Amino acid sequence: MPGQNRPAIVVDTPPTSNGDLHIGHLAGPFMAADVHARYLRARGREVVFSSGTDDSQTYVLASARRKAMPPEELCGRSWHQIKHTLERMGISLDGFAPYDDRYRASVRTFVDDLYAAGKFELRTVRLPYSERTGEFLVEGLVAGYCPVCLVFSRGGLCETCGHPNNFDELLDPQSTVDQHDPVTHRETEILVLPLEQYRERLVEFYERRKDRMRPHTVQVVRELLAKPLPDFPITYPIGWGIPAPFPETPDQRLNAWVEGIPAVMYCTAFADEQKRGGPDGSADDELWRAERDAEVIYFIGFDNVYFWGLTHVALLMAHEGKYVLPDAIVSNEFYELENDKLSTSLGNVLYTNDLLDEVPRDLIRFYLALTCPESQRANFSRAALDKVADLRVVTPWNQLAEVVNKVTAASGVTDELPVSQAAQARAGAVAARFRVCYEIDGYSLTRAADLIVAQTERLLLAAQALDPSAAGTSSALADLFLELRTLISCAAPIMIDLAASGAEAGGFTCRLDDEATRVSTVKPFRVPAIEAAAPSGA
Q1: Residue 512 above 80 pLDDT?
Q2: Residue 366 in 3-state DSSP?
Q3: What stretches of 435-537 adopt beta strand conformation (E)?
Q4: For the residues 34-38, what does the mean pLDDT come to?
Q5: CB within 8 A of 130, min separation 6: which ones?
Q6: How confident is the model at residue 537 (pLDDT cuts 50, 70, 90)?
């Protein structure tokens, strides 16, 4: 469980490499993971924050077929697009790993060990089958109606209720590439991980961690554990993905969802090497080993709870204590665009790079934090972004900066000034409230963004009350600058450019440890303004 001295591994589930990232991708796991990683670093924690791409997903194959292009080309193009977008948004990954031979070797080692230990079993199952193409249709290649909630769903998992739909459970299945392609079912043998064998351990796992998960995650896990757990497919008889190395399943591929844990282990190792300047000969799973006692924190979309929360945890458990288990799973709901479902295929999409061409990233990050879909669906609106960013951030902050800079210049104060104990207490109280928002037990970017607004308004009132000609102005300025430094530091995980310019101007480091607000003196500095967004449609 959490501890200040434990190294932290922050996991952002690797995005599927079937296109660039739209605004919904950023509003969910990426922003949440980035802010928490930045917070942990500001607290002095050792952190490895990594990601890569999920090239083996059948969604890649389906997208490539619809685009009439080789899937390998789509993967390569998407990797570069996604990496570029994350860099522009300031997502503070320690490394963005390539999908390469080392990746595939890491996955092979992970599953080979489980196979050698007899953890997989051979099953005869019925799978959707395309009579026209002569191929099995699984995961992103097939759609139908969920057998649990009856809502239209892709294969493998229902995005609406979060329940799996393995094998032949989808109702009225159809091809996602060609809706007119007749779909039947055929039997085949595959290897599976019998999840039911891990029931007791999974129940205990969630009982210990239920307070570090959001209500919807706890609910769907409770529903899943209330009935027999399905077998988890380890191999599929398809032609895309990593070849399955098992004699019982010749010519089959590993289920892309099996790659999840060894993939993030590999991404963690790659990112750690980037931080340290090169490899040190360690195995790709070294930082995940139990003896390293890392705190692992997942940031996922709700639709991934079943895979990352049950099947992947079971795969870790199957290694019988070799690896740490995740300490927390932070899920998010769906983000809509102009009150409609984000959909690339239907043309209702806003790519993050396009928005970055018009709006400073701090304002995007603030708006995404304020409106992020933490526990229910939320909506992105460009008009709302313009209005909210101006009224709640740009205007009040720039008024604050203007007043403070004018008073400072008029007072002539330039040297270090002593701060009062009362100011230290106020700064400590503010930092404590932000820490509540950034700690996993009460993690909320929405409340943190609200705090930025509220504290800006409070300090603006304090600044407007200053009289540069009055006695005691230098003491009041000193207290105000301490609180300004504190607010900038507390906002830093979200508003990264304001924090960088403020820290540079003030000659301080944006820290969020317990000692950050206990400074005895501060030096006045020119408070930076926030750049406004270009009007929508300009």
Answers
A1: yes
A2: helix
A3: 521-522
A4: 98
A5: 136, 137, 175, 181, 182, 183
A6: low
Q: For 47-79, what is each residue's pLDDT tens digit?
A: 999 999 999 999 999 889 989 999 999 999 999
Distance CA 444, CA 437 (A): 5
Q: Classify residue 210 by its DSSP letter.
A: G
Confidence at 189, pLDDT banded by 50, 70, 90: very high
Distance from C-alpha of 237 to C-alpha of 13, rounded to nearest angstrom: 25
Strands 171-175 and 183-194: unpaired
Please give the structure tokens belonging to residue 360.
Answer: 């400073």
- The CATH homologous superfamily to which domain 361-522 belongs is Isoleucyl-tRNA Synthetase; Domain 1 (1.10.730.10)
Give pLDDT tens digits for 294-353. Answer: 999 999 999 999 999 999 999 999 999 999 999 999 999 999 999 888 766 556 789 999
Q: What is the CATH number of domain 8-111+257-356?
A: 3.40.50.620
First to last CA, the chain: 50
Residue type, 445: L
207-257: pLDDT as tens digits: 999 989 999 999 999 999 999 999 999 999 999 999 999 999 999 999 999
Cα separation, 124 vs 185, in Å, equals 13
For 435, the token pair is 């820490």
Report the C-alpha gap between 199 and 232 in whole angstroms.
13
Q: Which residues contact 254 (CB under 8 A, 6 or more apart)?
A: 56, 107, 111, 234, 235, 236, 241, 242, 243, 244
Tell me how crowded residue 279 is: count the other CB atoms within 10 A of its CB: 11
- In order, the DSSP letters of 285-321 are TGGGBGGG--EEEEEEEGGGHHIIIIIHHHHHHHTTT
For residue 435, give the nearest of 21, 39, 140, 145 by alpha carbon: 39
In the chain, domain spans:
8-111+257-356, 361-522
Amino acid at site 6: R
User: What's the pLDDT tens digit per position in 81-137?
Assistant: 999 999 999 999 999 999 999 999 999 999 999 999 999 999 999 999 999 999 999
CA–CA separation, 431 vs 516, rounded Å?
Answer: 9
- Rounded Cα–Cα distance for residues 333 and 216 (Å): 9
The pLDDT value recorded for residue 534 is 77
Nearest to 236 by CA among 319, 167, 134: 167
- Cα separation, 7 vs 17, in Å, equals 29
Measured distance CA(236)–CA(357) in Å, rounded? 42
8 forms bridges with which residues in the sheet?
Answer: 47, 295
β-strand partners of 335 = 378
The answer, yes or no, to whether residue 172 has pLDDT greater than 70, is yes
